[in-house]
Automatic annotation (TrEMBL):
Record keywords: NADP, Oxidoreductase
Name of this protein: SDR family NAD(P)-dependent oxidoreductase
Highest classification ranks of the organism: Bacteria, Bacillati, Actinomycetota, Actinomycetes, Kitasatosporales
Matches recorded under PANTHER family: CARBONYL REDUCTASE 1-RELATED, CHAIN DEHYDROGENASE FAMILY PROTEIN, PUTATIVE (AFU_ORTHOLOGUE AFUA_3G15350)-RELATED
Organism, as annotated: Streptomyces coacervatus
Family label: Belongs to the short-chain dehydrogenases/reductases (SDR) family.
Domain of life: Bacteria
Amino acid sequence: MNPDDLILLTGRNDRRVMDAAREVTQLSDTRARMEGRVLDVTDTDAVARLADELRTRHGGVDVVISNAVARVLPEESQAARADEFIDVSNTATHAILRSFGPVLRPGGRLLVVASSLGTLGHLDPRLHRLFDGASLDQVEYAVESWRSRIHHKTAEEAGWPRWLNVPSKVAQVAAVRAVAGERREQDLATGTLVASVCPGMVDTATSRPWFGDYSHAQSPAQAAHAVLDLVFAEHVDPALYGELIRFGEALPWHAGTPLVEQDRLLTP
């Protein structure tokens, strides 16, 4: 990268965003311009305004990495935190895809950081029809139906698991697949990549409370390579386009089994 390139670091906390931008700017090998920007990705209008601003000022964007997460602890009620979790993981992902997809320049990268739990098989088979081959509008409808059932305490009888992370990740991957399906031919012709990424187990304050064995966990810096390898890859592998990518390989969309035992360990 060079001094004419602009990298935006975004987040909800003004101080943390500015401190991060300052820290990266001061690194000896940083050449691009760094700019911190306060952005709440659950504010869909704010996301749209930022995308429009970048289109107007710079003619579009080359790389978009969607990596927002809502922290939920094991002892907390999943249902009580559902709105915040769904807004951050799903409503925001839909907004990023809708707003930044159209301003992504040829040869660009639009990557949503997800999880290996995002494959369809981790959901009850009764729910597969909601996401398999769905459009983005249909994914959005399924997510809001799930949210409504949580509020009305009918989610479990319909097959939705208590653990919010499973449906939210499946819906994230389904949303990416929906958008990629519409763009595939044109994007592959121009070397553009739209995909979701699972960087593997990462040792963070958000994930640590959920796992007992961290012997194979990566630091955030190590996990970033899984994303950056895709950003800087010279060519786009058609087998990876639109898929959930883990360690350079596409995870089968229909893989996985419902995590029934895990649900029993969670706070209702």
